[in-house]
Amino acid sequence: MKNLALIFMISIFGLSSAQQQPKVLKTKFSKEALGQKLENEEGKNITVQQILDQHKGKVLIIDFWAGWCIDCLKALPKAEELEKNNPNVDFVFLSLEKSKEGFNKSLDKFNMKDKDNYWFSSGWKNNFNNYIDLNWIPRYMIIDQKSSIAKYYAISPEDPEIQETINRLLK
């Protein structure tokens, strides 16, 4: 009986912490979310708004990841394939590493140096991640040419809706 109760508790609590699609799929960012600061590889601050401005007029995929995240590392080859298959799409990688050293180490270890990388030095809980209901990584978002959210929630680069959204936006 104890084993059955333990299995029940693990399944209930395990499911509650797993990635779940947010109830509201947002299409715009809040002012607070856009003002969120990140750091680039050189340690310079940049806001989400500035990142979006750099990619305005292009379809942009935001990939949330970390080098300590097993699911993220498993997804990396497929994310690279998605990037290779969509040369007209920009990709930005937002890291949830726990330290600047971890960020730099992961960029080296996973051959990410040649990509557009930023790190949430403020940690997981911040205005941007709270606004987008980030509860697990990896996570992917597609931003359209006008900096609106075209695909709010995907947990795999193999999600067919990612390619469908890209195709629709590039028509």
Describe the fold and architecture.
- This protein has 171 residues and is an alpha/beta fold.
- The protein has a single domain (28-170), classed as Glutaredoxin (3-Layer(aba) Sandwich).
- The chain contains 7 helices and 7 strands.
- The protein has helices at 2-17, 31-34, 48-54, 70-85, 100-109, 127-131, 160-170, and strands at residues 37-39, 45-47, 59-65, 89-95, 116-119, 139-143, 149-154.
List key phrases describing it.
171 residues, alpha/beta, Glutaredoxin, five-stranded mixed β-sheet, two-stranded antiparallel sheet, 7 helices, 40% helix, globular
Q: Report helical residue fraction.
A: 40-55%
pLDDT averaged over residues: 90
Question: What is the oligomeric state here?
Answer: single chain
Overall shape: it is globular
Low-pLDDT windows of residues:
4-17
At CATH level 3, the topology is Glutaredoxin
Strand content: 15-25%
Number of individual domains: 1
One letter per element, helices H and strands E, the order comes to HHEEHEHEHEHEEH
Radius of gyration: 17 Å
Biggest sheet, open or closed, and with what strands and sense? 5 strands, mixed
- Classification by helices and strands: alpha/beta
Distance between the termini: 59 Å
CATH class: Alpha Beta
CATH H level, superfamily name: Glutaredoxin
- Number of H/I helices: 7
